[in-house]
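Hi L.,

You mentioned the student needs an example of a multi-chain input paired with its predicted structure. This one should do, with 775 residues in total across all chains.
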Amino acid sequence: MEKGFALPRARKRYYSRDYGQELQLFRTTSQKVWLVALLALVVCFPLLLDRYTCYIATLALAAVIGSIGLNILTGYTGQISIGHGAFVGVGAYSYALILAKTSLPFWLAIPLAGAISGILGILIGVPALRMRGLYLAMATVAFHLIMDQVVMNWESLTGGYQGLDVPNATLAGYAVKSEAAIYYVTLFFTIALTIGAGNITTSKIGRAFCAVRDRDLAAEAIGISLVKYKILAFFISSVYAGVAGALMALCLGRISPYDFGLIVSIAYISMIIVGGAGSIFGSIIGAVLITLLPFGLSSASDLIQPYYPSITTKFGDVKTLAYGLIIIVFLIWEPEGLAGRWRKVTAYFRNWPFTY
Amino acid sequence: MRKKGIYRSAGYETLLISMVVFTLIFAFAHAAFADSKRGIDDKSVTIGISAPLSRLLAEAGQASVDCYQAYFKYVNEVKGGVNGRKIKLVVTDHQYEPSRSLANFKRLVVRDQAMAVISWGTPASTILIKPAMEEKVPLIAMSGGRDLYIPSKRYVVAFATPWEFQSVATVTYIIDKLGDKNPKIGLFYNNDDFGRSGKAGIELAAKHYGFEILSEAPHITGSPVDKAAVTNFKKAGVKYVMVGAHSGDVSSLLLEMKSQGLDCDVFGVLAPSSDPKIIEQAGEAAKRYHSVDQQGRWTDTKAPGIQQMIDITKKYGFVNHMNEKSWYYTSAWGPALMIEEALRRAGKDLTVEKFVDALDTFNNWETGDSNPPITLNPKRRISCIGSIIVKADLEQKDLLPVSGWIMPPRDVAKTVLGE
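Structure written out for the whole complex:
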């Protein structure tokens, strides 16, 4: 660099000067400021929202965890899974049974449920090593259908079709049952696991995942063990799904097989399609959008209902149509999802006026 | 020190402590929904309903909601409401998902201020038991799910006849009306919650009346009927085939029985098996088909309750359900009548508690034969115990009543209800 030459101030902050800076999840001051503002907002949500909206926000947070897990497996490692809902269900049932049958506190039962789901993920990951693409997708669907039947027929353990009551969680002798308390518990796990996922994806493990996704044979040729990293991806993904399931069980108070059908797996796939595969940020916005979509459409029908009372009975099909249309639109016009579109927008303004 | 990501600067410890503090604060700050005048003012009372209006069972949910809308419109316009209050119905869609059902419940009570909530379907209703009890919100569940009424819960009422009683009623009909004291029975059932409830009822009847089930055939819902099932019925000399299955599977069984030449009486042992579509699908094969039902039939115009339902349905434009003889439309008629009557009995000074107390005063309350007589009290939280037997009429393309309301034997009632 010539003596006296200095990078323009606008450019300095986008360039890392050392490896530590490169590894930071949030590199610029403005990113950190926005992050703090967002955290402050989500922490204050229960003070600003009514109990119904707080409950929906909790569902969205649990979906964020599940979505991140699936994105690690599918977006980062390239392993298609349409059985994610089954792992969520395993986590939910594990949580309910741990609370019912042991004296463990709920804050231990949640990660333990994740671990149980993770172990099941390893068991699925091993036979899945030899499969890819459509075959892997069908294998995960088969796993989901098997788990459906196990849950429905193992009545002595799962309550069968009737479902299972989830015992109340307690903290320091007080029941954690208000919407706000459950929201904060979910928020804690969401933040912790999001940070964890961010660190995983920017670490050696994350780079290995990407190598497996992009060129698995070349990755193996340069010494990245496909066996190790594929199984690890299944494990991490299943742990996340299990924790999401446990938090859902905490939120719902009662679980049944109807909560974890194949449609749940499809919902998670649509979250990463809409949000953006291979992006933690994409997982978050996809999860929030897909979770809130049916409630948003219900609110829209409520606006019309005073003028057209039977709209609610007709609007139900509109919701299903909207759901499918959104997925198709994103697949065709935004294959990188909302995260991809955000990257393009920010890159445009970062380079403005030199946009070419 | 090298920065290695956000976790060093944020501090997991700070995060943990702040979350525990917030959680503890809000664990204490538990504001209840309980409000004795919620959804009640001088001019109206708000009732919420959560039903499947899209995806699974959408047609059934929509039919039920239309029935409530028709009846409450009639009450408001013709009767001027109940004790001067119009009934305002707020409709929500749970898509047959329990998590949506719970969201709808919270929305109905928090935002729409519903005094009471009607819930459609077993999983969507059982998830509401805890919040209904904790928040003291009357829940009227259109479901016979056992957890709803055993043990009895003050704020939860199941509007149905227990499935076991329906199944037992078919055997009671065979023994008492057809006079066969030692029936040779074969059992065909869906291997799911629905079908197994029918099986449990037939097993209860077998124990009570002292006969054996000669042959059993579990069946996967929606799959082709196993020919061996019918062959085994023939080999066992079965005279009555009892079916605990959905209407599509019932039709398939009837057709298979006809093709194998097994000509005997067939009884659907659960109320949804009385769907007239079975006659459409099975045709001639349905000529000896009977079923149990827990409510009156569209074609039974001699019943004053049914005639009233037909008149109101025509008046408010829901004739499509009448033309289809929709079972799910009629399933909502009984609860709608019960809610109106409970509001009337609660009096002008209506509160949530008075409404619940009024529900407890129903003692063999007649519904004009649109439903069995309704009895509710603090120990019994399921509305009906009677069932009716209907038989296929190929000309009318419907199943018509061939019995009055059949009540279960005492020991069976005690086993199921624990009374």
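You could point out the following to them. Residues 1-10 of chain B have pLDDT under 50 and may be disordered. The longest strand of chain B covers residues 44-51.

Best wishes,
N.
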